[in-house]
Design a protein that fits this description.
It is globular, with a radius of gyration of 21 Å. It has helices at residues 4-10, 27-39, 58-61, 64-75, 81-89, 101-109, 132-135, 139-155, 160-182, 200-214, 224-230, 241-249, 253-270, 285-290, 309-322, 340-350, 362-365, 408-417; strands spanning 44-51, 91-92, 95-96, 116-120, 123-131, 189-191, 218-221, 277-278, 301-304, 331-334, 355-360, 382-389, 392-393. The protein has a 6-stranded parallel β-sheet with strand order 7-6-11-10-9-8. Strands 4-5-1-12-13 form a 5-stranded antiparallel β-sheet. Strands 2-3 form a two-stranded antiparallel sheet. By secondary structure, the protein is an alpha/beta fold. It contains 18 helices and 13 strands.
Amino acid sequence: MVDIATRVWNHKWKIDPIVRSLIDTDFYKLLMCQSVFRNKRDTQVTFSLINRTKDIRLAELIDEGELREQLDHIRSLSLTRGESTWLRGNTFYGKRQMFRSDFMEWFENMRLPDYHLEKRDGQYELTFEGNWPEVMLWEIPALAVLMELRGRAVLDEMKKFELQVLYARAMTKLWEKVKKLRKIDGLRIADFGTRRRHSFLWQDWCVQAMTEGLGEKFVGTSNCLIAKNRDLEAIGTNAHELPMVYAALADNDAELAQSPYQVLADWQEEHDGNLRIILPDTYGTEGFLQHAPDWLAGWTGIRIDSGDPAKGAETAIDWWTSRGEDPKQKMVIFSDGLDVDKISELHSQFAGRVRPSFGWGTLLTNDFRGLTQDDALAPFSLVCKAVSANGRPTVKLSDNPNKAMGPANEIARYKRVFEVGAQKAMKIEV
C-alpha cells in the first residue's frame, strides 16, 4: 500500500501528473460519450468551470503555470493497450462488449482538444470548445486537477510529520465511518467521489478501505481506472449533461418539453437492466414524472441528485404506484451530499419499500474537514458544465433552485415549459 504522506512529501520532480490515464474518469462519462458519439457527434459544445464556493479564490492559490502543465499533460494522453482491452473485453452490468467497436476505434485515436484559460476576479475561467464527444471528456480530469492542485497548495506548507499525522487522522476518520456503515443490514453503496476527490491516491485508498471494511455491501466505484486496477465493478449510468444539451438543441417549446424523454429513448436503444436508471431532476422531478411516457415506468430505478432526498423518493414511489409498478422492485439511488448519518437515515426510511442504493461522493473521497488550520482542506463545490450547444445556452433547473444555471430569461422559459412551480432553496452540499 502506498504511503501517501511520504509520496506527497517527495513529489519534487518537475511535474507530478495528477491525471495519468484517460480512464481516470467516471464510468458514466464513457457510457454517455458512446451515446453522444452515436447520436449527436457533430454537436458543438462549450464546457466551463464554475466555482460555486466564491471565497475559495483558486487563482490566488494555484500557480497558472503549474495548472497549464497539468492540463497540457492530459492532452498528451491516449488509451493504453491494456485500457483498451479492458474496455473492449470486460463485462459491465452483466453485458460483454458494452462499448461498440466503432466507438472504441475513435476513442483509441482521440486526444483531448485545446482549452482556454484566464484569470478573473481571483478565479480561473477555464473553458473547452469543440465536438461534443471530445469536449465532454474534459469535465472529470479538469475538476480532478483543480481540486488536487488546491490541496497541494495547502499541503506544500506542511512538514513531513505534519503530513503523516494529517493522513493518519483522515484514515481514522474514514474508518470510523466504514464501521458505522458496516452495521446497516442490506446496505448497497458505491464510490462516486472522482470529481471532487482530494487526490487519486487518496480515492484509491478510500476504495480499498471500503472494499475491506464493507465486503459485499460495497458494490463498486465510478472510477474506471480504479475499477480496472482493483478488479471492481465500474458503476454509473448517465448525468444531467445529456438533457441539458438535448434541450438546448430544441427548436421550439414543444421540442423542448419532449427533449428529456428523447434522451432516454436514445439511451434505451443501447442499454437495458441496471443501466436504465432515470435521472429526473434536470428540469424538476415532479413535472418530469407527471408527463413521462408509460414505458419509462418499466425502467429499473431512479437516481435522486438534488432537493430533499426523502421527498424525491416518496414522489418516485407514488409515481410507480400510479403506473401499476411495484416500488419494492425498483432501485432508488441517492447521490447528493451524502455522509454516514444521512445514508443511515435514508436506508432506514426506505429499505423494504424500494431497493435503496447510495453513490457516496465528496465526503467519502475528500473529507478533511476539521483536520487543518482554518479548515484549509475542507471540500468545496466546483463543477464543470456544458454551457452552450450549437451556440445556444444550456439551462439546468434542478430540484434545488440554488443549483439552477443559465441565462435568467431562459431559466424563466424553461420553468414555464416544464411547469416548475415553487421550489425550496437548499444549501448546496458538497
